[in-house]
Amino acid sequence: MSKDFAALYAELAEKARTRPTGSGTVARLDAGVHEIGKKIVEEAAEVWMAAEYEGREQAAEEISQLIYHLQVLMLALDLAPEDVWRHL
Ligand SMILES: N=c1c2ncn([C@@H]3O[C@H](COP(=O)(O)OP(=O)(O)OP(=O)(O)O)[C@@H](O)[C@H]3O)c2ncn1[C@@H]1O[C@H](COP(=O)(O)O)[C@@H](O)[C@H]1O
Where do the coiled-coil regions begin and end (predicted)? Predict the structure, then answer.
């Protein structure tokens, strides 16, 4: 069963809280907002290129990675999903 936005956020929040060894998420949080922001821009560009040239399946994968990095930024800023949803 694949995970959804809420399940991934809960998983990442738990990683941020418990800081398990080897977690890429913990390393990204430790690198800080500047590095997370650069990764978001990179992933957004990959979404664009995949959508324009690489097809739906590749675009879906790149979109999932962009969502992951957006969630890391949310955790870095202590933003819960509800803090974002209320702007929708
Ligand atoms: N869903 C993701 C996920 N999507 C993307 N990424 C990261 O984003 C990278 C994709 O970026 P690129 O394609 O640019 O790969 P890259 O050039 O090697 O990127 P860099 O690692 O150099 O930044 C992947 O290599 C991962 O490091 C993710 N890392 C983790 N998760 C999930 O997050 C959860 C927690 O992961 P850990 O914190 O590592 O335990 C697990 O369920 C993981 O499956």
Answer: none
